[in-house]
Amino acid sequence: MAATGGTKAILAALVANAGIAVAKFVGFVITGSSSMLAESVHSVADTSNQGLLLLGQRTAKRKATSEHPFGYGRDRYFYSFIVALMLFTLGAAFALYEGVHKVQHPEELSSPLVAVVILVVAIALETYSFAMAIKESKAIKGDRSWWGFVRQSKTPELPVVLLEDAGALFGLVFALIGVGLSVVTGDPVWDGIGTLMIGVLLGIIAITLIIEMKSLLIGEGSGEEELDTIVGELTVGEVERVIHIRTQYIGPDELLIAAKLAMRRGMALTEVAAAIDDAERRVRDAVPTARLIYLEPDLDRTPA
């Protein structure tokens, strides 16, 4: 689970965000910067989010029951969806509200140098967390682009951590720009503008995650390449063709396959059973996540 679920990346992000949140709150109390406050809330939300991702990994390991015969693998999708909602409500919505307020009623910053130092240190910590997430993701990303990985990955935690860390880094840069321009120009409205930029950024990331996690939560099947592999492994030997097939990920590491197979005419029952067993073995060897396979033998009734 640690390898595929990115546990190391989640723990790195949790430790980094917890420390950053404390530092940012101290910076906000000293400086009164709205950008610092928005980033503080953002870091608190991120810390809570990593806790939820770890909780989802834990609850997903529960054994199947009669009420949930396919297990609890989708818990990881559920908690990742909750994380996306929290990022939108606690992160984006708060930053947008605070930004509008500070633009309408700008306030002078006190001790802006403190904010700058804290933001620079936070950028260093977030860079470490982001590098860890990239390292963990490369193991399962394959030849896909990073955007393709976020869109197509069946493992929800790593895309969540990647986008969270990317948003945190850019958010820190926006906060630094807002504070810096406020000091250089003497106009504190730039601090509010920086806060608005943070809110817009977090909103875009949160909506992207909500869309992707919702898709996983309601059920996604195999991608085109994986489906072609499954069909190719099924249509060997006594199997003439796949009449129809349905696939669905019931957890990041558990694929359900149901298919009706056209068998060679005249086969004995024992031969059909052996052919079905061989087909299941070939699919499991080619696609290790295919843990639940239901194959129905039939005759090809396609008109000649």
Overview of this protein structure:
- Its main location: membrane.
- It is found in: Membrane.
- This is Cation diffusion facilitator family transporter.
- GO terms for molecular function: monoatomic cation transmembrane transporter activity.
- The chain crosses the membrane at residues 77-97, 109-134, 161-183, 189-211.
- The protein is mostly helical and 304 residues long.
- The protein folds into two domains: 2-218, Cation efflux protein transmembrane domain (Alpha-lytic protease prodomain-like), CATH 1.20.1510; 224-299, Cation efflux protein, cytoplasmic domain (Alpha-Beta Plaits).
- Helices cover 69% and strands 11% of the residues.
- Strands 1-2-3 form a three-stranded mixed beta sheet.
- Strand 2, helix 10 (269-286) and strand 3 form a beta-alpha-beta unit.
- Helix 2 runs antiparallel to helix 3 (34-59) and helix 5 (112-141) packs antiparallel against helix 7 (157-185).
- The mean pLDDT is 87.
